[in-house]
Amino acid sequence: MQPATPLPNSLIVTAAALLLPLLAFGVIMLATRSRHRLSAAISIGAAGLSLLAAVYLLVQHWQMQAPLIFQAVWMVSGQMTIPIGILLDPISLSMFAVVAAISFLVQVYSLGYMAGDPGFGCYYGCMSLFAWAMLTLTVSSSLLQIYIFWELVGLASYLLIGFWFDKFSASEAGKKAFVMTRTGDVAFLLGLVLLWLQLGTLDIPVLTNPATVGAQLSPGMITLTALLIFGGIVGKSAQFPLLTWLPDAMEGPTPVSALLHSATMVAAGVYLFSRLFGFFSLSPTAMAVCLTIGTISMLLASTMAMVARDIKQVWAYSTISQLGFMLMGLGAGSLFAGAFHLITHAGFKALLFLCADVFIHHCGTNDMFEIGRQGGRRLKSAVVCTIIGAGALSGLPPLSGFFSKEMILGHLLDSGHPVAFLAAAVGAFLTTYYSFRLIFIILFPRDSGDAPPPESHDGHHHAGSEWPMTTVLWCLAGVTVVLGFFQTPLHDFLARAGTGFQAATPAHHSWLPVAACLLAAVAILQAWFEYGRKKARQIGWVEQIPFLADLFGQRWYLDRLYRYLLDTLVYRGVSRLFTANDRRVIDGALDGLGRSTIGLGRVIDWVHGGMIQYRLMIMVAAVIGLILFIGWGG
Amino acid sequence: MNWILLTPELTVLLAAALFLVLACLKPDPRRDYQLAVTMAAFAVAAATACATMSGDLFNHVYRVDLFSQVFKALLAIGFFLVIFLCDDFQGVAPSHHGEGYFLLAVCTLSMMMLASAVHLLAIVLALELSSYSLYILVFLRQEHRWGMITGLRYFLVGASASAIMLFGLAIIYGVTGAVHIDMLIQQLPAMMGHPMAVTGLLLTLAGFFFKLAVFPFHFWAPEAYQGAPNQVAAFIAAVSKVAAVAILLRMISMAQGNSDQLARGLIAMAVISMTVGNLAAIAQRDFKRLMAFSSVAHAGYLLLGMLCMTPAGYGAAMFYGAAVLIMKYTCFMVMTRVADDGRNLQIDELAGLHRRSPLLALALMMALFSLAGIPPTIGFVGKLMIFVAAMQKGYLVLVLVAMANVVVSLYYYLLVLKAAYLDEPAQVLPSISLTMPARLVAVAMIALIVGLGFYPTTLLDLVQAAVLRLP
């Protein structure tokens, strides 16, 4: 750890960028909630200024040599001090910029989306809260601080989804999301506490320094803590086996999905991995687990996406699968490949979600067949942008996804993981297939495709003007097109993060891009053959095999399995035991009491004849047991 | 003798005396409420003003120091908050409102004494006084069906716990020949290897465990919460726990941290309390019963901090005691406002709360998140402090058990939250109107839960300075 001399200037700018959204949240919630336009202006203004600050920081520190750290003491317990602070290095700066940009764009987009909604002000308040939490997470200087904001991001996301009360029908989904992410978080917290105990500090620069960590921790301990922290990543980034919550959490407003479930919140898991890359790479086991989990999630989610009919669910599965892809790149030992794909993915996946939102709101349905029938293809910008986004997702040149996918594939090949490479190739094929399946279904509907241009279904949603929505779509599309060409400067920039960076870029396999393009072309052709051409029956090859269709459609029966386990363990086991006891003892007795005339004598009678002695006996027995227990040890 | 030191107690005593007189006059709920709130506000002012005083009173039986004064301030605040909640005092017959305030005041007074008492007899007196006022308070419930049974059961369990405690005190006296804490501190640590001393101390703790609802002294809790008027249940759940923490810290610190045997006993109780409380809470349908079992679980967490027997652990337990006061009070505040006729609230009845009163729903959500230890809330900081203290002592397994318990607890807190935010009520219910002060208190509670989650430093420094006064 060599913290450079603090630059007060950067500190002020960063702090301002962090505090503005919080301030906006406070002002909106306390004062301007009922004044919609003002609230939106405050929130967007704050997000815009944060974005400017992020760009300024990026430019200012483009040539940075050492990370900048600003820390202050937050709490003291015994001999332990708990600091909070800001850590600026290439990784956090780039993620900071991505988050600021996406949240700004989504907020602008929401201007059109939310116009006329009664909860307009509240929505922007929650958006600001989310932006604040997420931005702070990216520049946190210690793992504990990351954990706190990690949870706060989760909280803001519940507010944002729950905000859409009328439509948030799936209470089960909310519960599932909560339980699954929390399960991961507990593992994370556990790993964090263990690390803390061993190292006495959770500062990220210390954690990622191989020399200090290696000297103070045994390899087994490193692996254990790394795996526990990885548990948190699995929960947040919806990886196997905790992946089923994400598709179900798509009930909220689509712009929220674009912000939360593609670019920022779920990406926080992968971000954490790249943040702690230096630490994880100390444990080969953890890296192998990461690679494996990433591979499994990527393949499982792609297969699920192949049979989904809900447009948002397709992109949700695709998000899981792309996050898995990033983890594969990271697990194979390339920080840059994973981080680069994280950045490009944020752009094109937000684009895809926002396009999906345009379709959904014009056609009033999530079903892509129905969207096609209602003439979704007449929405020109949305169709073109979807194609651009899907092209990037499929890794078609010259879109951004092409470059980042190439990086990961090349790395998998170089680092000697042939199985993972093959799986990645299969995954890439499936990804292209399901993306273009969706496009062809919308473009070439089977019947009544030439219905009159769709009218807006919910009149009030489009009371506002359309231009913010279209502008944002084209902005993101532009980013998707050009971002790939910044590969080299970005690589140079991120290389200054120091830890875990191989000096040389991976050896170029000149055949790899060609092969990947060919693969994508085959996938597109197949999708066209099954969905696009005139005589196509629009039934995919998977759907013709009932077994596979069932398996994929039911998400590999993961939900059923969890349900079954939950039923057996919690409901049938523990819960029933207690309920039965409760019912027999208390309810039964009270009902009996209620039915008869109640006199004090009877009550005393009952208390004597009833359970109270039994309980007192337990009490005394427990005390005696306790005395024996402590006596025995002495 | 410096009577100024006793200002907080005297203020509460004055309130008690006032209501003893008023209870004999013609009942006037409005007047009683306003008077009670005023007196409680005075008590808070007095307790805060005297926060830094110190000195011994009554032949050194009564000690005023930072430790006791911080607890007194917390108790006074809790007293004020509960009184504030009594604006309609449903569940207690209007003719008994005066008695209700009187008993609440007496109970607060005795708990303040409990925080200051350093002589075993004084401790017993204070404890019994607070317990007896609570027995009667539970009994005040308008529907006799609830009040009588539960009052009696509560009393029986309490009496048994007191008996066990007196037995323990007798053993301690027999072993050491001392009744003053200062003398016990000189003798006990050396004797902690002696099974008799450990047994005596553990049995003595029984009386306080009863207050805190630690297993196996928790049997009264679900029924007492359910049977008591809602405001009284809030008092038991939030305020009386603070007093229990105070006296338990005082007693456990007597062992000076050199008793593995005592720690073993406490570990067993902490683990069983957490587990039993959390598992039993899963099955509950009644809000107050659920809160009761959650109290049992939280007693386990508190015990986890205390059994570290280090300043860090004591500080963490004290901080968490304050956190419990805020979190539990917020839950009960929401419950009392929703159950406006003083009935027992079923969890299903929270359905649609987010529409009926967004503020209350938000307060409930923050309180539940805090109880479940999700950052950035006061509950998270408290749990973190306790876990860190336990880890410093090397109780790794214990922390793991506690964290597993936290996960279980999430499940049922989530059920409550689901009812409040996601479930639709069977029929449309009118929105809940809150008065301006009630709104302010709700906002203040949310602000405290989140604010202390972000900036706990001041409170932490305060409790850490306070526990340094412990031997």
Overview of this protein structure:
The complex is a heterodimer of chains A (634) and B (471). Helices cover 73% and strands 3% of the residues of chain A. By secondary structure, chain A is an all-alpha fold. Chain A has 3 domains: 8-532, no CATH class; 556-596, no CATH class; 601-634. Chain A has a two-stranded antiparallel ribbon with strand order 1-2. In chain B, strand 1 and strand 2 (62-64) form a beta hairpin. Chain B has a two-stranded antiparallel sheet with strand order 1-2. Chain B has one domain (3-467).
Chart the SSEs and their pairings:
The complex is a heterodimer of chains A (634) and B (471).
Chain A: H1 8-32, H2 36-60, E1 68-77, E2 80-88, H3 90-114, H4 120-139, H5 143-162, H6 171-199, H7 204-207, H8 210-216, H9 219-236, H10 245-248, H11 254-263, H12 267-275, H13 277-280, H14 284-307, H15 311-331, H16 335-363, H17 368-373, H18 380-394, H19 400-414, H20 418-443, H21 467-482, H22 487-495, H23 511-532, H24 546-553, H25 558-595, H26 600-609, H27 612-633
Chain B: H1 7-24, H2 29-49, E1 55-57, E2 62-64, H3 66-84, H4 97-116, H5 120-139, H6 144-176, H7 181-191, H8 195-212, H9 220-227, H10 230-252, H11 260-282, H12 287-306, H13 311-338, H14 353-356, H15 358-371, H16 378-392, H17 396-421, H18 436-454, H19 457-467
Antiparallel strand pairs in B: 1-2
Helix pairs in contact in B: 1-2, 1-4, 2-3, 3-4, 3-10, 3-13, 3-19, 4-5, 4-10, 5-6, 5-10, 6-8, 6-9, 8-10, 9-10, 9-12, 10-12, 10-13, 11-12, 11-17, 12-13, 12-16, 12-17, 13-15, 13-16, 13-18, 13-19, 15-17, 15-18, 16-18
Spell out the key features of this protein.
heterodimer, A: 634 residues, mainly alpha, 3 domains, two-stranded antiparallel sheet, 27 helices, 2 strands, 73% helix, B: 471 residues, 19 helices
Please tell me how large the radius of gyration of chain B is.
Answer: 21 Å
Q: Indicate the proportion of strand residues of chain B.
A: under 5%
> How many beta-strand runs of chain B?
2
How far do the termini of chain B sit from each other? Answer: 24 Å
Number of domains in the coordinates of chain A? 3
Span from first to last CA of chain A? 48 Å
Residues in helix, % of chain A? over 70%
Shape of chain A: globular
Widest beta sheet: strand line-up of chain B: 1-2
- Summed up, the helix count of chain A is 27
